[in-house]
Amino acid sequence: MPPLSGAHLAGVPFPRVFGLLAVAAAATGIAIGISSPQSAAIPAAATTTPPVATIAPAATTAPATTTPTTTQPTTTPTPAPAPAPTPAPAPAPTPAPTPRPTAQGAWPAGRDGYTDVLASIAVSAGRTAAAARARAARRAGVPQVGVLLSSSFTSLRSGYWVVFSGVYDSATAAENALARVRLRGFTDAYPRRIAR
Length: 196
Prior knowledge:
The chain is α+β, with helices and mostly antiparallel strands. Helix content is 27%, strand content 15%.
């Protein structure tokens, strides 16, 4: 655009001239801004449109409603009762001790039972022979050895000194002990009931 001179301004009303000058200045500013690498540093021409404020309609909110809350009573859970302890099994009854022959190796007084007969020696041979046989059985390790007179017991044939081992409550117990007696050298031993 050619420069404006005073000649060209003649006959043009002043406000119009002023408006043209404003447009020319703005165009020059834009041209400089586009052609210059430092355009970011140059403020834009005053041709900005004024900001328009938009007012959004007020949001309508529903009135807050309060929901009544009911407080539940708190309960503490009761722990389950502990299981009852299992009773310990009753101890097995202790069997009555098996009576042993008396210190002299005699059958216990007033007692009926079973025994293992080691030897039967005729009364005519004497008690000494029966006692010697009983000592030999003890030395061999036979348990509970004694001597009794068969005539004192109804379950035995009279006329003998009986060398025996053990006093048992049952025939089975006497038979179970018999193997031990036989291992000690008394292979002819046998179980027998002893009753008065």
